[in-house]
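Students often ask why we bother encoding 3D structure as a string. The short answer is that it lets us treat folding as translation between two languages. Here is a chain of 143 residues written in the first language.
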Amino acid sequence: MSQQQPGGPQRQRPHAAPRREQQLQGSPDQAEPLTPAEDRQWATLSHFGGFLGCIPSLVIYLVFRHRGPFTAQEAKEALNFTLPPTVLAIVANLLALIPIIGGIFGIVAMLLWLFMTVSGVAAGIQCNKGRPYRYPLNLRLIQ
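And here it is in the second language, the structure alphabet:
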């Protein structure tokens, strides 16, 4: 005895028409260079990302450094500026967990975040106008 599926007799799949051979195309070895507007946009975003720490400028630098010279220059500048305060803010936030003196470290972490945010917005505004920005207090750890 053959078993039937509930709902009626078994259906036969119609044979599909033979497929023509498709030519598959891969992506190019190198990504397209950025247009001047995109270059300025990503450079600006690398500075505006300062309120999140060094992660946005690091990601933008690693992804777009070979695609646009302005983005590479400004993302590196933003990364050099945000890296030390981000490390200090993480340490201050950890020390803020200590009873009694933790409040002082919490205030220090907040002031570091405020400093990075205000500086990043000022740099992003200049960068959006197409002007390179140099932070006055920058260690320039990454060459």
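Translate back mentally: The mean pLDDT is 86. Keep this in mind for the problem set.
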